[in-house]
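[job 4471] stage=fold_predict status=RUNNING
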Amino acid sequence: MNTVTFKNSELVHISNLLTSLKLSGKASRGRSKLVKLLAKKEQEYNDDFNEIRKPHILLDDSGQPIIQDDKVQFKTKEDRLQVNIELEELSNEQAVIDITEYKEKLDALYQALDSYPYELERMDAMAYDTLMDQLEESMEDK
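[job 4471] inference complete, writing structure tokens
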């Protein structure tokens, strides 16, 4: 099976990188397919994030989190510490994405990225490296 695997914490950075790239043709279509697959994993991550937090935070009468100074309010200090531990684990969990259906388009994306003519900096450069490592691995699985 052809898959790419990222940490949950990397999903947004990779999506942001992909949407900012100048691509055309089949490579652009490959990007669009991968961004949609990443969005599904991001939604799963966000759902898990909220599930972890919900029992530990204070809610108003309408069931919405109480926010003070732009921060969610926890029931206790211990709740906040427990949530931080669980969220750290969640952010490091692997998000495995099956790319079998879009292999040809993602191969084109890989080729375009391999010879991408524009300079990438900071988070984009790191996301690029992570993405290329995974696409290269999936290419070897042929």
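[job 4471] summary: The chain has a mean pLDDT of 93.
[job 4471] exit 0
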